[in-house]
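Records of this kind hold a single protein each, on a pair of labelled lines. Below, a sample record shows both lines together.
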Amino acid sequence: MYFGVIKLYYNFDAINHPLITIDLIKSRNKGMWRAVRTMVSASLDAFFPRTCRVCGCSLAVGEDLLCASCMADLPRTRLHREVFNTVHQRVGGKNSIDVAAGWFYYYRDSPYARLVHEAKYGDRPLTARKLGRLYGLELAADGLAGCFDVLLPVPLHRDKLLKRGYNQSLEVARGLAGQLGCDVGDNIVAVRSHSTQTRRGGYDRYANVKGSFAVEHGAELDGLRVAIVDDIITTGSTIHECVDAVTSSSSPASVSVLSIGVTKMR
């Protein structure tokens, strides 16, 4: 029986070891391939054990990034279930926001903060994409699949993109899109570089990103249900600027915002 060509290559996005990925190019028996994939995955786990990003314990078959215990204890916001919430207040301004949500509350000293930090600064774009996929699964389970036409990631300026090598918000959007059944667009562009928002206060954050974003080919967004995606929402100034850029350059049917982390404002 012909199973096709199997490629083995190293992906150094794994937390403690290279994760060997198997790519079956031409398979004529999907059921057999699933059995082979399960068997090989179990074998790889024995030699290269995958570990939970939060607590460090070994992951069981079917678990990804987080173990079942850490997934259960994740400080979920469930903001997408609220008609008007703290994210609406932070990013809306003069614009009407439809869905405003983030997956979990971000506390700097929490072990869950490692997820956002690794996705953003740890040279692990696959982590960002997996976080988007996991959040997308939960949003879809709550009925949000099919509620958006296009996801627009908050962009990085070319200088920062060259330094980091990837845009974590784009990877999050890709993970979300696969579960929510929508496209990922690149209409929002960074036209001005700005310094990091970390440790800045509310007004300083707003001033720091003012005029940083623009929209290209705005007519493409006319009549669409748009969702702007970022890795974390703190004061909301970055996404607020992106929302302003979208609404001033196009006429979308609605604008929503989604993120992985949301800081708990005191």
